[in-house]
Amino acid sequence: MISKLVLQSTVEGIASIAQREVCVFDPDGRLLVSSSDESLSSEVKAQFVREFADSPAQMQELADGLYYKVFDEDRLEYVLTLSGGGENLHALGKMAAFQLSGLLVAYRERFDRDNFFKNLLLDNLLLVDIYSRARTLRIDETTLRMCLVVRPSGERRADMIKTLRRAVDGKAGCVVTEVSEQDLIVILDLEGKPEETEERAEDARWGTEQGRAFAEQLLAALEQDGYPDVRISCGAVSRDLRDLSRSYKEAEMALDVSRIFYENDRVICYGELGIGRLIYQLPLPLCRMFLSETFGEVDPDREIEEEIAQTVEVFFANSLNVSETARKLFVHRNTLVYRLDKLQKITGLDVRVFEDAITYRIATMVIRYMKYMEKNEY
After folding, report:
1. Which of 89, 126, 144, 152 could be stapled to 190 by a disulfide with Cβ–Cβ 3.0 to 4.6 Å?
2. What is the pLDDT of residue 269?
3. Residue 220: CB atoms within 10 Å
4. What is the spatial order of strands in the sheet that 31-34 belongs to?
5. Pairing state of beta strands 175-177 and 59-62?
6. CATH for 140-278, options being 3.30.70.270, 3.40.30.10, 3.40.50.720, 3.40.50.150
7. How many angstroms from the chain centroid is the CA of residue 164?
């Protein structure tokens, strides 16, 4: 079904060329669009449309003008009417009906492509169906592609998808679709010379750079249209259609992981999740065992003061450099050393030693992960 806005615009264009009033009805006689606000939409004309729709005729001439049937494949979709008379009216009517038929074909193909990609991302297609339907829809099977998930912080507005489609307009092969009420999906077609395809597919950093750059463009377009609180995640590059669902799952995971460990980032790439991705996939019993072995009976949340915890974060951010950390915190070096010594007494870990620093860092991330999972009723 053609959108009413496009249908109205098409009818007005036809009417301006034909210099005739043009109307489009559904087979039940309901007026959908008209080139004139004063068009005849009486029950009499609606009855004419219903009778014509039930007849075997493809075209019919009545006192008020010509009636044409417009089909979508074998299904009657519209009844087109042109008012008035004249020797060119039949030719104008045929061209108008042909124009609507062409629009129906274009809309059906777009719908079929959209439906194909939705089922592909959700793993609803058999392997043999993926390639046969891709060939039917003229979709390249081996183009490098990547999935991006666009998620607003609150409820998604209906017109957000229009902004994304405008943002990717002109970028060949890109698809914007949706598979849930909250998220929108952008499938990025990565351009490149055929001889570079294999090399680029193996380069995870290249894919991450491409995804991040494109996500930044989408964010800018969304902000310009009044969507400030949006996060975008990127999956890894897929070299084959059948792997595209994996890229989608990676982008979904990237959003979930970022909510735990990188909550201030607005663009999140699967290839940049680092140790957070590993921790996210750990079972909770294993996490509890690790914390028990690391801290024993100590509860870090209760026994480590927030001032000390923040000090350690700055210490890590400055590559375990005591002097630089003291300067950033505006404290004396001895004060910083005192705080690190106090942490060592509580936990048994000296974060000035690289191995202990790694252990403490992982442990705090595990604690954050467990809190998140328990809060969300894992």
Report:
1. 144
2. 94
3. 11
4. 31-34, 22-25, 75-83, 65-72, 59-62
5. unpaired
6. 3.30.70.270
7. 8
Decide: 346 and 335 in contact? Cβ < 8 Å: no
Buried/exposed 102-136: b ≥16 CB within 10 Å, e otherwise: ebbeeeeeeeebeebbbbbbeeebeeeebbebbee
- pLDDT digit string, tens, across residues 143-181: 889 999 999 988 777 788 889 989 988 787 889 998 888
Q: For the purposes of burial, counting CB atoms within 10 Å of the CB of 350, is it exposed (0-12), middle (13-18) or buried (19 or more)?
A: middle
Contacts of 212 (CB under 8 A, 6+ apart): 234, 267, 269
Q: How far apart are CA 156 and CA 160, in angstroms?
A: 7
CATH architecture of residue range(s) 4-101: 2-Layer Sandwich (3.30)
Q: Report the Cα–Cα distance between both ends of the chain, in Å, rounded.
A: 43
Integer Cα distance of 262 and 374 in angstroms: 18
Please give the model's pTM, rounded to 2 decimal places.
0.69
DSSP 238: B
Residue whose token pair is 């061209």? 95
Q: Where are the alpha helices (DSSP H) in the chain?
A: 4-18, 43-54, 89-121, 127-136, 160-168, 197-202, 204-224, 244-261, 275-280, 284-295, 300-303, 306-317, 322-329, 333-347, 354-375
Q: Identity (one letter) of the amino acid at 210? A: Q
For CA atoms 254, 259, 262, 265, the dihedral sign is positive
In words, the CATH class of domain 287-375 is mainly alpha
Domain limits, the chain = 4-101, 140-278, 287-375
Report d(CA 53, CA 98) in Å as an integer: 17
Judge whether 4-101 and 287-375 match in fold. Answer: no
- Percentage of the chain modeled with pLDDT above 70: 93
CB 82 within 8 A of CB 95: no
